[in-house]
Task: structure prediction
Amino acid sequence: MKQTVRIAVTGAAGQIGYSLLFRIASGEMLGYDQPMELQLLEIPPAMDALRGVVMELEDCAFPLLEKIVATDAPESAFADVDLAILVGSRPRSPGMERKDLLEANGAIFTVQGKALNSCARKHVKVLVVGNPANTNCLIALSNAPDLDPSQFCAMTRLDHNRATAQLAQKVDCKVESIAGLAIWGNHSATMFPELGSATVDGTPALEVVDLQWYESEFIPSIQQRGAAILNARGLSSAASAANAAIEQMHDWYLGTADVTSMGIFSNGSYGISKEIVFSYPVVCDKAGVHVVEGREMDEFSRSKIAITERELLEERSAILHLI
Ligand code: NAX
Result:
């Protein structure tokens, strides 16, 4: 039997939490032979709701789920955790400026970064889902000086999956036929879903679809997909976000053969500014996350990347006092 893995999930009583926890506990994220303990964090007003979620988890009698902790104290939630998925964050309320949103979330992610630094296992892997995910991730890792920045990432897997599915629909192929696409930059409307190195059954994607569709339909539709779901459902995407979190953590923990996208602490690859959390094409193995180098970038791609990089630099300057 494998050693038990401790997994923290914040915002555990929220929408994404409700889609995420049961799939983690069933074994979908780390494998059906991996026992686990869940350490769930919420804010005091949501503790009743969290107790209900815990009861439901108990009622599933998951064989792999050895223990559940439900708490409103970050230090307890992160005590000796191997993995942490930071979903809980402050949503934008009416009239709230982007700067106020960054500030409100900054307060959460400084506290959680510090608690991870002092309480989590030294090899902890931290996936940030709560928006603005890239900059929240930057704040958390900056407040965890004893952990390496490579132990943190922001979720852009949902955008990657959306791009894969839309390309597969367009060319009428299976999603497994698509390889090599990438999400660059921020998890926001400036992200750049790039098809320049993508293939469909081995053929370059840009030989299969026309440039007009790529530039005028595909890119905006991926950038606006979250808003489209919110308009249609009256609620933001939750099940697909939980699915993406499971896949991103799965690949990070167990490794992946295919190129995927992750928001990571930039080391300057592709000339991107250092010290922002930027989504790159990556592969993961036991040694960690590796940016896929050497992709050819034309002027169009470089201009799109510059827009999303600029936005991340602006977000960084708005929270400089927190990092
Ligand atoms: P919900 O509002 O349903 O749930 C959030 C939960 O977090 C609430 O239960 C709240 O009480 C809790 N929370 C707030 N502050 C907390 C804190 N300091 N510590 C612990 N828990 C706290 O939102 P949900 O739909 O679950 O979305 C969660 C976050 O994911 C949002 O920021 C959302 O914007 C973000 N998303 C990120 C995506 C991505 O691709 N990176 C996609 C989906 C989603 O939009």
The mean pLDDT is 95. The first helix runs from residue 15 to 26. The radius of gyration is 19 Å. The first strand starts at residue 5 and ends at 10.
